[in-house]
Write a structure and sequence with these properties.
- By secondary structure, the protein is mainly β.
- It is built from no helices and seven strands.
- It has one domain: Immunoglobulin-like (Sandwich), CATH 2.60.40.3080.
- The strands form two sheets. Strands 4-3-6-7 form a four-stranded antiparallel sheet, with no helix packed on it. Strands 1-2-5 form a three-stranded antiparallel sheet, with no helix packed on it.
Length: 98
């Protein structure tokens, strides 16, 4: 005997406030990264808390950036998730390291 159960849920999203928590002018480059340095820039270029996670969700690098350049020489080639927080706003992007 086989039993199939389906659950459905729908969240409401306010599209007017969809991007309000993102950091204005955010750029992460070069991506894919081929050297030991990536640059993280924003419109304000204030102090940033940068966290890099591997594909398993483990924190592999954390740095407080006051400059634009970030040393990633400790990262092995692969795909990572970068979370940047600046002035109580945050943004998440994918980073490929070659």
């Amino acid at each position: 005997m086989a039993v199939s159960i389906g659950l459905y849920a729908q969240d409401t999203i306010d599209i007017n406030n969809l991007h309000n928590d993102e950091i204005n002018g955010f750029k992460l480059y070069p991506n894919p990264a081929i050297a030991d340095v990536v640059y993280v820039t924003t419109q304000q270029n204030s102090l940033k808390d940068v966290r890099i996670y591997d594909v398993f969700g483990e924190l592999v690098l954390r740095e407080k950036l006051s400059a634009k350049a970030m040393n990633i020489s400790r990262l092995s080639p692969g795909v990572y998730v970068v979370q940047v927080t600046e002035n109580d706003k945050s943004i998440t992007r994918k980073l490929v390291v070659k």
